[in-house]
Each structure stands twice: as structure tokens, then as C-alpha cells.
């Protein structure tokens, strides 16, 4: 007996290694014994000692033959594992993913993933808009001329002054900025899809806690936890969308995702006003929590998706542990060690994995990744332009209505600026994504679109504030905001594609941290300080708008910096060859059609 290996060629070019256990080819020992010629003399009968010696030799030969058969079978099995792994890695073996396709819910497609993430993103920003609305935020009790008016909303119930009311927004940012890099680092040792589920669970509990808060400090802590929960989604959602979007529509899909930011804030204003005034401000937070609950359940129930550049799945699940070379080595060693030896090794393994050492190791890895991230010139230039851009947009959203009312005597500045921002935010963000896909999604083209749109947008916005007439201001400012918002998808496309796949969560997290710490957080008080010095809103608005030219300059420099799209670059976290054959594909619609 022995083993032989045959390789079959499939219709799609895939090769399948087949191990046949049976009689070895070309082995004379397995042939039938020759027939004795007629008339041959009978063999001489040996003595008793010779017969015993022959039986021992026959037994030794049989044992050697069994050993040879087992070795041949093992060689064929290992050859099959290597061949299957090589062919699946090349993408030619349909059967290797058929078992995985059966486990995948047929309804969970890339488009549905995009819709789910867009709804989650919108709910995040609905919360931001709701807490700023008059129905939820309310006003403090005031007394004028002996007549007192009762307070309303959060300010009225907790008797908060303006500073304490502002602290609620700052507490949210603190949680968001601290947790974003933490979740990005955890993505290397835990499945990112599950981390999103954990973050959404924290968000859901924290928003419900805001509705149950009883004083200033309780709602402040809850707002901080809301920021922590949102941090996981902000850091990890965009890489998932980038992985699953069609190659020709990656930026358009990102645009749809980021379009939910202005839309969510606008819906939050309306939602907070309606629910807060008709029911209670606490009911607005409870409603948000209930709306997010189905997505939390999906985050834990759906089989976790793998993010490109990471590997958190069980090895060789469909083909079995014996096809994993590492497992084969462990099996060989385990047979010689025995149960007693295995019991001795387990305590040693667990003693090394102490919590303190894990923390130090993760900090070391985080610092190594940060060093690599900051050495990426394209990423640094992109984020510098993004900081300058967000500095202006953050101040616009806070001071725009007040400046417009003072300069043009607008009767309804809130509605005017809010409407312009919502409409231009939606159409500008979508147009930026679709345009970049049409001209070919490359990092160089993204920088061209970023610098060109920002420069033209700055000209229109600057010119708008130069008009003395409201009828000249509105069309110029609308066109300017439309161009400025076209940068949302391209700037995040560069953040995702200028670094290797395993650094994408950290890239998104640190981009978020940077644009807030150095962008919109300090811009509002600095613009207020400038206005206190010069007492001229037109000059203040023109000075603020001129910073958009700085953003355009940074992104213009990015055009000439050598850039490489590293989306398909492998890293130390990529899946090994044998294991890659056993991973469920990431929401492949073609795979779904083939399975059906």
C-alpha cells in the first residue's frame, strides 16, 4: 500500500490536489506472485529454525510497508493543503469558499452594509443636533422687572449657566478624542466589527443614561461615554466601507457615508425641537437609544466581518485543523509530550500573559504605529490641510448666524445659515465623491480635487462677505459652501489609501483627533477673541475665510509629493496562505449570486 497524488484541472482553471491511498504505482512488491512453471521441482522444506526466521522477516516487512503507507498518505495530505491554499490565494478555487458562502446571510450585501453604517452615522449626528436644539438644551430660568420665566430643557432643569452648558459639548469631545486611538489600537487584537458593536452598546446605554441623569455631573459623565461609544464607529466604519465598495465607486460610497453628517445634525435640530417641546427633553435621548438598539444587536449577532490587513478568525475552520501546517507541527509535538507535558506548559503560558505586560506591549505597538504614520508625508500633508479646513467650518457653524445677522440684518439668520449648510452639505459631499470616481480615484487626483475645490470655494465665500447686499451674499456663499463640502469624501479617501491596510483605523482615529483638537475646538473661542478686539463681524469673517486658502495650499503641495496607493499592500497582520483559503469573503455580491 502507499499514497499517490493527482492534480485535477477545473473548468475555471483551479487545481485540486487529490490523495489516493492504495497500491503504490510501480511497486513490484505489490504485484501478484509469479506462477511456477510446469514441472518445476517442489521447494525444499526448511527446518524449524529457518521457518521462525522467515516469519520474523515477513512481520518486519509488513511493518515497514504500513509505515511507508502512512508517510505517503501524510505527504499527499500536506500536498493537498498546500495546493488548495496556493490556488485559493490566486482566487481560482470556487469550492474553497462554498462552505463559507452557505454560512453568510443571503440578505447581508455590501449595499446593505453601507445603508446600515449610514443610518448609524446619521443617528450619531442626530444626537449632536438634538442636544443643541432649543427643545432639548432649553434655557435657564430668568427674572426681569420682577417677572420670572421658568427654565426649560437641560439648562432649566439643572439650572446650568452658559459655561456649564458648554462643558457638556466639551465632555463629549473628551470621550471621543481619548477613545478613538484606543479603539484603533484594539482593532489589531480584537475583531473590528465586534468593536463597533461594543461601541454602539456603550453609546446606547450612555444616551439612555442622559435621559435618566439627575444633575450636572451625571449628564456630563454620560455625554463623555456617548463620545466613547461613537469613537469606535468613527475609527472603524470607513475602512469597512472602503473594503466592500466597488472599485469604481469607493469615493462615492464614502461620500454617501459622510453626507449623513450635515443631514443628521439638521434632523437632530428638528427631532430635538419636536420631541422636547411635545414630550420631554429626556424622551429625546430615550428615543435615540431605542433607535440604535437594533444596530447594537446586529453588531453582536452577525458573524463578524474581517477588515483588510487584519486576521482575527479561527484558523482553517472549513478545511479542518489538520490542513494548517502549524497545527500539524503541534499535533506531532503533542503526541510526544503527552497529557502530563501539556499540563506543565499551560500555567507557564498564562503566567506570561499578565495584564501589565499586555498594556505595555500595546503601548509599544501603538507608538511604533504612530511613528510609521507620522513618517508618511502624504498623510501628514493631508491632515494639515484638513485641520485648516475644519478650523473654518467649525467657526462657521458656531458664529455664522450671528455674523450674518450683524452684517446683513437677517431676521432669521439661524434658518438661513442652517438651510444653506444642509443643502450644500448634502449635494457638495455627494458631488465630490462622484467626481473623484469619474476622473479615476487616485491620491494625486484626490489632492487636485481638494486643492481646486477649496481654492474656488474660498474665493466665493470671501467674495460673499464682501457684498453689502444680502442678495449678493446668499448665492455666492451657497456656491462657496457647495465647493467646500466637496472635499469630505476625497480627504478621507487619502487618509485610507496612503497608509497600509493595518494602519487605516489608526489613520482615521488620529485624523479625527487632530481636526478637532487643532481645528474646530479652538477656532470658535479664537474667532470670538478676534471679534472682541476689532468689533467688526465683516472683517472677522473675512479673516476666518482666508484660512481656507491655507488648506488649499497644503493640498496643492500634496499633488507633487510622491504617493502610492497602499490599499492592496500586505502587512504583518495579513492572513497566511493556508488560512486565507478558509476565510469567509467580505460581503461579495458575486459570491452571493453564485451560492444562490
TrEMBL record:
Coiled coil: none annotated. The keyword Transport applies. It comes from the Eukaryota. The chain crosses the membrane at residues 167-186, 193-217, 223-241, 253-271, 283-302, 378-399, 415-437, 449-470, 539-561. It is found in: Membrane. Residues 113-563 form the Major facilitator superfamily (MFS) profile domain. GO terms for cellular component: membrane. InterPro entries: MFS (IPR011701), MFS_dom (IPR020846), MFS_spinster-like (IPR044770), MFS_trans_sf (IPR036259). The keyword Transmembrane helix applies. Keywords: Membrane, Transmembrane, Transmembrane helix, Transport. GO terms for molecular function: transmembrane transporter activity. It is a multi-pass membrane protein. PANTHER family: PROTEIN SPINSTER (PTHR23505:SF79), SPINSTER (PTHR23505). Belongs to the major facilitator superfamily. Spinster (TC 2.A.1.49) family. This is Major facilitator superfamily (MFS) profile domain-containing protein. It comes from Oryza rufipogon (Brownbeard rice). The lineage of its organism: Eukaryota, Viridiplantae, Streptophyta, Embryophyta, Tracheophyta.
